[in-house]
Amino acid sequence: MRGMGSRGTGKNLIQDDSEKRRAIEEAMDWLLRLKADPDCPQAARDVEDWLARAEINRAAWRDALKAWDALGEVRPRHADLWPARPVATLPRRSRKPLAAGIALALAAALLFVLAAPALMIWLQADFRTGTGESRMVTLADGSAVNLSADSAIDVELTPEGRHVRLLAGQAFFDVAHDGRRPFTVEAGNARVVVLGTAFDVALDDAATTVQLARGVVGISGEGETHAVAEMAPGDMATVDGATGAITRATVPLEEIGAWRSGLLFVNDVTVDSVVARLQRYHSAWISVPDRTLGRQRVTGLYDLRDPDRALKALVKPHGGKVRSISSYTRIVSRY
């Protein structure tokens, strides 16, 4: 089992890839807006302003246009807003191989953006699961960890303490009691300390959520200057990924860890957060470029055994639609 070194480098790389992903999703959102309202000059001006802000936006726009073309979509009016770099004209017979080469290069670039964070997690993890897969792990101290789909943990057990880092996804912990060695779980900027108990931890880009099924735990967030909030059975604490602020609520005990039975229960979380959890059960890449839709808050119960149906049920009340661009891509928007 691995130690705790080399965290900073991996975190920085994941942040860089997150910025690239964000820019590509925003570029796709602008394309959808232009397609939905092709005669709106204000939309075109807004896109130009967005493109002028940063090189990462312009690079994402070029990649999004190539992806749009590769998917067979007709470019909306005003799509060619940013001057393309000059390309030498080739004889007609050479254009098809060039197009194929561009498509392959684009696919490789997008694959890197999507796969780099997963590669970093794979290198750090002691235990991991794939898309749609769950796994029960028994640690050397007798504690049981039920890993949800597309999840990973790094484990360090020493005579002084027991430490687990949730690198991605979600896990249900049933901790063996050991009064001499506290059991600590880190997920994002949240930290949970226990001696012996059962609880669920879910990690996504926006927040870390902890739900306590049995026992007592203390939870802290970086923004709370490491103040520890005590949780009792049925308590749910959400630690904001950006500020570390903790918000609290209650949840029925029978719904804690419901994903182990194929159900996902969420309470007052964003659409983006739910999509991130559904992504772990879906073989296609799911993108929500519509930031307003992504920030909508929802409470509900969704069937993880049919992620497409769950995705539609999630966004329909907010006017959202799920577009199956291909068997490998889902775009969620209100356009």
Write the layout of secondary structure elements.
Blueprint: H1 7-36, H2 41-53, H3 55-70, H4 92-124, E1 127-128, E2 135-138, E3 144-147, E4 152-157, E5 162-174, E6 183-187, E7 190-194, E8 198-203, E9 207-214, E10 217-221, E11 229-231, E12 235-240, E13 246-250, E14 263-270, H5 271-279, E15 285-287, H6 291-294, E16 297-303, H7 307-315, E17 321-326, E18 329-333
Parallel strand pairs: 5-6, 15-18
Antiparallel strand pairs: 1-4, 2-3, 3-5, 4-5, 5-8, 6-7, 7-10, 8-9, 9-12, 10-11, 12-13, 14-16, 17-18
Helix pairs in contact: 1-3, 1-4, 2-3, 3-4, 5-7
Give a description of the structure:
- The protein is of the alpha+beta class.
- The protein has three domains: 7-124, no CATH class; 129-255, Jelly Rolls (Sandwich), CATH 2.60.120; 262-335, Phage tail protein beta-alpha-beta fold, CATH 3.55.50.30.
- Helices cover 34% and strands 30% of the residues.
- The chain contains seven helices and 18 strands.
- The protein has helices at 7-36, 41-53, 55-70, 92-124, 271-279, 291-294, 307-315, and strands spanning 127-128, 135-138, 144-147, 152-157, 162-174, 183-187, 190-194, 198-203, 207-214, 217-221, 229-231, 235-240, 246-250, 263-270, 285-287, 297-303, 321-326, 329-333.
- Strands 1, 2, 3, 4, 5, 6, 7, 8, 9, 10, 11, 12 and 13 form a 13-stranded mixed beta sheet that branches.
